[in-house]
Design a protein that fits this description.
single chain; 260 residues; alpha/beta; six-stranded mixed beta sheet; 25% strand; binds adenosine-5'-diphosphate; binds magnesium ion
């Protein structure tokens, strides 16, 4: 048995809006993520995926339940947990190399680990782009730089909140392959939020299906077939059908109306 890195136990988070209404973003959510595992969270917009990532990252706190990283309570953000946002959040005034080094500098360990900078640039396939600025590279490359900037801190878990959401479908497929490569080479534990079922199947060991209002985990599915996964393969398509059904999208397709 692999050991668990992230433990979420009975977590609830309710927001109070400015009009005084309560929004039950998450209710009694429990999830355990193992060392080196790739887990995707999938569900309709508003079902609490970002809320759950923010809680795991220590950026937010629950009203009920506990969160732990390697057995220690998660109380505040730390480099131990990396966070990659939908829109890359590189510093526009720094080169790619300096963006990736920024985490080391913030932790005052740059001198000790500066040899890692070229290593992580290579890992995400950005050799030759060290001296470019974020606006000079594509969205997919910028996301890879953001991933390197987090991974260089050797986090125990990397949280990715729809990192491919803003990319076109070709760049997206490319980044998915790159992410798999990075995951294999680095051994990082990945928790990915996506609303793309194919992306979840292509990448994950397990897929966590969430339902909204209040946000709950409705099902956790294992993806057992090996990489590389063929998007048109029988196992792929059959799991896709299962997930669609669980998400109730299948039944949400418009029914033809007959009016004479
Ligand atoms: N700061 C906030 N104040 C009030 N409601 C919020 C806040 N953040 C999120 N919500 C609400 O909580 C629910 C879950 O949001 P979120 O976690 O962003 O969902 P997802 O990432 O799955 O789209 C949504 O209904 C959203 O409108
Ligand atoms: Mg979100």
């Amino acid at each position: 048995m692999s050991k668990s890195v992230v433990e979420v136990e009975g977590v609830s988070r309710t927001y109070t809006t400015m009009r005084g209404e309560n929004v039950h973003a998450l209710e009694d959510v429990s999830l355990s993520v193992n060392d080196g595992e790739f887990v995707s969270l999938i569900g309709a917009s508003g079902c609490g995926k970002t809320t759950l990532l923010r809680l795991i990252s220590g950026l937010d706190k629950p009203q009920a339940g506990t969160l732990a990283l390697k057995g220690e309570p998660i109380l505040a953000p730390s480099p131990e947990i990396g966070y990659v946002f939908q829109q890359h959040s590189l510093f526009p005034w720094l080169t790619i190399e300096n963006n990736i080094a920024a985490g080391l500098k913030a932790r005052h360990v740059y001198k000790q680990f500066k040899g890692d900078v070229p290593k992580y640039i290579s890992l995400v396939g950005l050799d030759g782009f060290e001296n470019y600025y974020p606006h000079q590279i594509s969205g997919g490359m910028a996301q890879r730089a953001a991933i390197a900037r987090s991974l260089i801190n050797r986090p125990s878990a990397l949280l990715l909140d729809e990192p491919m959401g803003a990319l076109d479908s070709f760049t997206r497929a490319d980044l998915q392959d790159k992410l798999l490569e990075i995951w294999r080479a680095d051994g990082a534990t990945m928790i990915l939020v996506t609303h793309d079922i194919d992306e979840a199947i292509y990448l994950s060991d397990r897929i966590v299906i969430m339902t909204p209002r209040p946000g709950k985990i409705s099902e956790i599915l294992e993806v057992k077939f090996p990489h590389p996964r063929h998007r048109g393969g029988v196992e792929f398509l059959s799991l896709r059908g299962v997930i669609l059904e669980k998400l109730n999208l299948a039944s949400a397709l418009p029914h033809p109306e007959y009016k004479i």
